[in-house]
Specification:
By secondary structure, the protein is of the alpha+beta class. It has 4 helices and 10 strands, in the order E-E-E-E-E-H-E-E-H-E-E-E-H-H. The chain has 2 domains: 39 residues; 143 residues, Nucleoside Triphosphate Pyrophosphohydrolase (Alpha-Beta Complex). The protein is elongated and about 60 Å long.
Length: 196
């Protein structure tokens, strides 16, 4: 982009991820150039998946504690969302989500389809989220899931009807952006039908 020059990165924190202060010269439409500063959190990219069963009209979600959500609202710390996780270095988004399905949900799936890509907070995060759908059947279940002890995960696996999940958006029991996007994608594209 021609209107951005002289970019410098300053590391503010490098723990689980890296927090930068990025300074740059920005030329506005009227020709003025200003030196701007933005904080930017780089945690890498991630993948998320809506796992569904057409025959039963069910989906599988997760429920786990999320400290940033709890810190914002003490009533919302136990968070219902789709299976998701970080993409490791030299790993494809598809390989990452198939690994996460096995770790978090306890299902061994061989395929998933990427249907959307999104930045959920582009003013602060570098993270791009690759959104998948994947069909499951009961015979693909290999263990109870729940996440990895080595990653301090304590995940509850929730199998529910697609209709109930859609209702949970309306009742604000599901307030996670990636989960809402995937559920609405499934609804709009008739991946599953809501049963009354």
């Amino acid at each position: 982009m021609k209107q951005i020059k002289n970019i410098t990165h300053h590391i503010l924190s490098k723990a689980w991820a890296t927090l930068y202060r990025i300074e740059f010269d920005y030329q506005f439409k009227d020709g003025r150039i200003k030196r701007l500063k933005r904080e930017c959190y780089d945690r890498g990219n991630s993948a998320a998946v809506l796992v569904y069963n057409v025959e039963k009209s069910t989906i599988i979600l997760t429920k786990q504690f999320r400290m940033p959500v709890y810190d914002n609202d003490k009533n919302e710390g136990m968070f219902v969302e789709v299976c998701a996780g970080s993409i490791d270095k030299n790993e494809s988004a598809k390989d990452a989500i198939l690994r996460e399905i096995q770790e978090e949900l306890g299902y061994k799936l061989n395929d998933a389809k990427c249907v959307l890509e999104t930045y959920t907070s582009p003013g602060a995060l570098t993270e791009k989220v690759f959104l998948f759908i994947a069909e499951y059947s009961d015979d693909m279940n290999i263990n109870e899931g729940g996440g990895l002890d080595s990653e301090n995960e304590d995940i509850e696996v929730l199998e529910m009807s697609f209709s109930d999940a859609i209702d949970m958006i309306r009742t604000k029991q599901i307030i996670d952006a990636k989960t809402i996007m995937l559920l609405q994608y499934a609804q709009i594209n008739k991946v599953l039908q809501c049963k009354n």
